[in-house]
Amino acid sequence: GITWEFFPMILGWAMLNFFLFDAFFGAMAAFAPTFQTAQVCAIPFNSVFMMFSGFMISKSSAPSYLRWVFEFSPIGYAIQAIFCKMAGDSPDGQALVHLYSFECNQETKGVVIIVAMMVVFRVLQVLSLRYRNAIQK
């Protein structure tokens, strides 16, 4: 199995993604007129984040005109950081990192992008509640 030394890192990335998707779904729920519409609107975005995580579609296998999506995939940053940390200096681990075209030492960039996306989604949520759905006190 996996040793406990990786647990804090995996939990940290999982919590970062949890808070990001909470902000995203909150923004969708605030913008949409009904919860059914919010669910339907969120599916394409969630699917893109999952597909471009670097595991299903890698950077090297993606068409050149879609490679920019990897820069905004929060799940991609988490998977990449976890893979790189667990691979260490092992030849087999490095082979997997190369196979999936992961770039190590991108953790800070990933955290900054995820936090920025969280802030944007929370601001959109507040603006949507205030102006689109006219929530009153």
SSE inventory with pairings:
Elements: H1 7-31, H2 35-51, H3 74-87, H4 91-99, H5 107-132
Helix pairs in contact: 1-2, 1-3, 1-5, 3-4, 3-5
Describe it.
Helix content is 66%, strand content 0%. The chain is mainly α and 137 residues long. Helix 1 packs antiparallel against helix 3 (74-87). The protein is elongated, with a radius of gyration of 17 Å.
Protein traits:
single chain; 137 residues; mainly alpha; 66% helix
Shape: elongated
Helix content estimate: 55-70%
* Helix/strand structural class: mainly alpha
Q: Could you tell me the number of beta strands?
A: 0
Count of helical stretches: 5
Distance from first to last alpha carbon: 52 Å
Rg computed from alpha carbons, rounded to a whole number of angstroms: 17 Å
**Sequence of secondary-structure elements:** HHHHH
Largest sheet properties: none
Model regions low in confidence, pLDDT < 50 over at least 5 residues: none
Beta content:
under 5%
Overall mean pLDDT stands at 93
Short summary of the structure?
By secondary structure, the chain is mostly helical. It is built from 5 helices and no strands.
